[in-house]
């Protein structure tokens, strides 16, 4: 399992591919439905969408997760879209092949470069000469060609402001930046870094992880692993009744501690129980 960093008030670069690299979108209606789901579900889970690019085989999102809802947000977004897609195509099976990928991104210059990378996806793929010609990205909204009420552009555009600068000036400067041939300080397509930012930012995130203020655990994936290994449902692990179900949860606690290497605090947060309860089980063993 690839560790996933998540927590409150973090900016994420999220990207996901179709199953076996098959197309995710086969018609304009598919793209539009995904955008509709994105707008509705982002509001539902208090997620701010700052940039996006929907490509035929993959998607890129730049989002701000205020309340550590990224896992449930992505599960709902891609679950809803997959259900719609399968119904329309009269098929069954996975639409998105692998777990979505995410990186934590510093909301300064790095976020600006990330938005440029996202907005140039269609150009780099040879689909258009100018990113404004590709409808299924947020770039046209950034340069004033259309309105998208759910899009939160300020974190990017405000980095192009100066005294007396108007909104039109910011959009023009951003347009020039995206169209320029400047060298990106990050190779977004190849980097394996999970934290993108300056040294101070990276160290601060690592410090919060060690303090337990930011998690590197995907709760949904952890429950999936435990449920498969122990042949029980997530509900039993969270709300056991009777001696047998409690003994199963004890097994889950020991597995997370001894096999997955999770801390007492992490286990307590995943199972929504007190640290004391976890410590009792670990010490009994």
Describe the fold and architecture.
The chain has a 5-stranded mixed sheet with strand order 2-3-1-4-5, with helices on both faces. It is globular, with a radius of gyration of 21 Å. Helix content is 48%, strand content 11%. The chain has 13 helices and 5 strands. It has 2 domains: 10-211, Alpha-Beta Plaits; 219-284, no CATH class. It starts with 9 loop residues before the first strand and ends with a helix. One of its GO terms (molecular function) is transposase activity. InterPro entries: Transposase_17 (IPR002686), Transposase_17_sf (IPR036515). Residues 7-121 form the Transposase IS200-like domain.
Task: Name its key features.
single chain; 285 residues; alpha+beta; Alpha-Beta Plaits; 2 domains; five-stranded mixed β-sheet; 5 strands; globular; Transposase_17; DNA binding; Transposase IS200-like domain-containing protein; Transposase_17_sf
List the helices and strands and how they pair.
Blueprint: E1 10-17, H1 28-44, E2 47-54, E3 58-65, H2 70-89, E4 101-105, H3 109-119, H4 121-124, H5 139-142, H6 154-157, H7 167-179, E5 195-196, H8 199-211, H9 219-230, H10 234-238, H11 242-258, H12 264-271, H13 275-284
Parallel strand pairs: 4-5
Antiparallel strand pairs: 1-3, 1-4, 2-3
Helix pairs in contact: 1-2, 12-13
Domain Transposase IS200-like: 7-121
Pfam families: Y1_Tnp
InterPro entries: Transposase_17 (IPR002686), Transposase_17_sf (IPR036515)
